[in-house]
Amino acid sequence: MDLNFTQEYEDFRQQVRGFLKDHKGHAPARTSRAVSGKARLAWQKILLEHGYAARTIPKEYGGYGAESDVLKSRIIAEEFAKAKTLGGITGQGINMLVPTLLELGTQEQREKYIAPTLRGEMVWCQGYSEPGAGSDLASLRTAAHIDGDDFVINGQKIWTSTAQFSDMMFCLVRTEPDAPKHQGISYLLLPMDTAGIEVRPLITMTGAAEFNEVFFTDVRVPTTNIVGKRGEGWMVANATLTHERGMLGNPDAALSRLNTIADIMLQETSSGAPLMDNAIYRDRLVTLQAEVYAMKFNGMRLTTNAKEKKSSGMAGLIVKLQGCELNHRLAALAIDVMGAYGVLYEDSPLLRDEGLWQTHYMFDLGLIIGGGSAQIQKNIISERGLGLPREPKVPKVPKGN
Amino acid sequence: MYFGLSDNQTLLQDSVRRTLERDAPLDDIRKFAQGDNTPLHTIHASLTELGLPLTLIPEAEGGLGLGVLEVALVQEMLGRYAAPSPFAATYGMAVAGLRVAQADKQAKDWLGRIASGVVIMAVGVNEQIDCREDCGVVASGDKLSGKARFLLGADLATHYLLAIKEGLAIIEKDAKGVKEIALTTIDKTRNVCALELKGATAHIIKDKGAAVAAMINSGRVLLAADTLGAADMMLEKAVAYAKEREQFNRPIGSFQAVKHMCAEMAAKLEPCRALVWYAAYAQDNSEEDSEAALMSRLAQTHLSEVGQYVARTATEVHGGMGFTDLLGLHYWFKRIGSNRLMLGAPEFVRAEAAALQNWGIKIGDKNWGKP
Hints:
The structure holds 2 protein chains of 2 kinds.
Chain A: H1 7-23, H2 38-50, H3 70-82, H4 92-104, H5 107-119, E1 124-127, E2 143-147, E3 150-158, E4 168-174, E5 185-191, E6 197-202, E7 211-222, E8 226-227, H6 233-247, H7 251-267, E9 269-270, E10 273-274, H8 279-307, H9 314-317, H10 319-337, H11 356-369, H12 374-385
Parallel strand pairs in A: 1-4
Antiparallel strand pairs in A: 2-3, 3-7, 4-5, 5-8, 6-7, 9-10
Chain B: H1 7-23, H2 26-33, H3 38-49, H4 68-80, H5 87-100, H6 105-116, E1 121-124, H7 126-129, E2 136-140, E3 143-151, E4 159-164, E5 167-172, E6 178-183, E7 192-201, E8 203-206, H8 210-244, E9 246-247, E10 250-251, H9 256-285, H10 289-317, H11 319-323, H12 329-341, H13 346-356
Parallel strand pairs in B: 1-4
Antiparallel strand pairs in B: 2-3, 3-7, 4-5, 5-8, 6-7, 9-10
C-alpha cells in the first residue's frame, strides 16, 4: 500500500491544475446535457489539443497519442471534478465504438469515423436491444439481406439512447438466418439519415424520453459498412460490451452523492432540529458511507491492478451490480430525509435540488436493469467468478404449450 | 499510488494460510470447542514459530515493527480457519495500545515481555464502549476494584489488560483479589471471560486516551478482518457444495435461485477486502487520528452486516446439512455472529462514526444511544 503519488504524477497533477486555471473559462456549464453544441465542441477541441480527451487514441486518428496510464486518467478525472469543470465528451461513440474500431475496424473505417467522433461532430447511438431480445441479446431478429452492394435492413431496435440526435448508429443485425444464433449476427455502421429509419421517443418513468425506439424499413447500407466479417458481429459486440461495463458504477460519484446527503441532513431542520439528529436517518447514512468507501477502495484496487496489468477477477466483476445498487439506495435515502418534500417533482414550487434526487432514484433503477441486468450480472459473477455451472439449455417451447 | 498488498504481505498471508491449513483442520476446531486445549497450543506454537507474535511490536523491543495491516492479514487467516488463538487480543490490541504508550518505560518493558513470549494478555475494553449494569473498574492508587466483562483472548493469558479512566491497567492472572469468570458464548472457537476485582494490584500506565483508542480501533479492524476470512471460507464452502450436491439430476449450483445467492455473497464480500486493507493501513499511515478511528468503525460495522448476510446465506445454500453439526459450518456462523457484537454492536459503532464526523449528537450526550 502506498497512497502517495510519485513526483512524476504530482508534476502531472500540477500540469492539469495549470491547464484548468488557464482554460476553464471556456468550459460550458457542467449541467449542459447536450452532446454537441458550439461551446461544447470548442471545449472538446481544446481538451483534445492538450490531451484531456481521447488521451490514448493514436495521433493519426485525431487523438493525443499518449501511452495508456490509468493513474494519469484518474488524476485528470479527479482534478476536473475538483474544479467542477466539464470533461471531454463521453457517450457510446467515444466509449464503445472507437475502441472497437481500433481493435477490429478496417483502416478505412478508422480514418473515416474516429476523428470526427472524437471531435464530437459525429454522434453515435447503439442499436443492440430489441423488443424480443433483451437479456437474451443474441436472439435478436432485425434482419439484413444482401441486395447488390447493399445490406437491406428490416426490424426494430429499442432502448436506443441519443438516437434522436445521433448522426450514426452501430448496430447488430441477423445476416445469416440459418446459422446458430450467436454465429448469424453482423455488426454494421449506418447513417441515421438513411431512408427508412424512423426514431420514436420512448418515455420512461422519469417522464423524460431518455431512450428511443428505432424502426427499420428496407434501410440500405453499403456492404463495406460492416465491422469484422459476416457472422462475427457477436464477437465484435462483446469487445464493446466490456467497455460499457467499465463506464457504469463510478465510486467517486457515489461519494459525492453521500456527502451531499450529509449536507442536506445537517442543514435542513424538522421542528427546529437538524435531520442529522434523527438516529435512524443517521444510521442509514453511516451504513451507506461504509459501503461507499468499500466501493471506492475497491475501485482504487482495480486502478492499481490495471496499472500493474494484473487481472482483478471478482473485484472487477461485481462493480456494475454493486455500484448501481448503491447509487439507487443513496437516492432513496435522500428522498426519505426530505420527508413529504421528497415527492415534489418537475417544476413544482418548493422543489429541492431541481428534482435531481427523484430523477436519480428512478433513473438508477433503469441502470440496475439496463447494461446487463442485475440478474445477468449475478449469472456472470457466479459462472465466471465462482465457476458455478451454467443453467442447462432447454429446447425451445412454443408459446401456449 | 499502489492500492494493494506488497509481495511480502502476500507471502506473509500465504504462509499463515498454509500453516493453518495444516494445523487447524475442522477436527481440531471441534476438539477445542469440546474442551480439549491441544489444538490451541499447537496453533500458538506454529504462529510463534513463524514469528507472528512479533509482527506489531517495535524493533527496539525485539519485534518486527510492522503495521496493523500485517496483523490484519494474519487475523483474516485465523478467521478463515476459525482458529482459536490469543493473537488478536495480545499481538494486535494489547501491542497497539502499549506501543502508543511507549513514552512510559513500563509500556516498553511489557512490549519486551510480550515479544519474549512470557506474557500473553487478555484484553478488556468493553466498559469503555458499552457499559451495562453495574460494571466498570475504578482505581485507587494501584488497586483496582469493580467488574469488567467480555475480555477477549482469554485463552492462554498470563495477564489481563484493562482500559480504565487513568489509562492501561495490567493485572497478573493469579493476583490476589482477582476472580475470573469464564463465559459460555455461542462461539466455541474462542474464549471470553469476565473479571471481578476487589483491590487487585495493577501496573497502571497513564494515558490520556490515545492508547485505549488505539486498542479499540485496531481491535475493530481485527474483528473485521476475522469476519472477512470467516465469511470468505463460508462462501467457498457454499460454492463447493453447490457444485457437488445434485437434485433434480443437476448440481444445485446450476439453479439460478442458488447461484444468485452465491453471487450476492461474493458481490457484497469482495469490496470488503479493500475496505479492511485500507482501514488497517490507516491505523499506521493516516495524517489525522480521526481517519484511523472512522475507518476502523466503518470496516467493523460493514463487515458485521456483510458477515451476517454471508453466514446465513452460505448456511442456506447447504440446505438441511448446513443446519447440522456434521459439517461444522456453524463454527464459522457463530464466530461471525460473535465478532458482530464484540467491541460494540453495529448501531452503537455507527453512532460513534457519526459523532466523529460531527454528524448529530456527541458521544456522552444525555440522549446518547437513544433512537
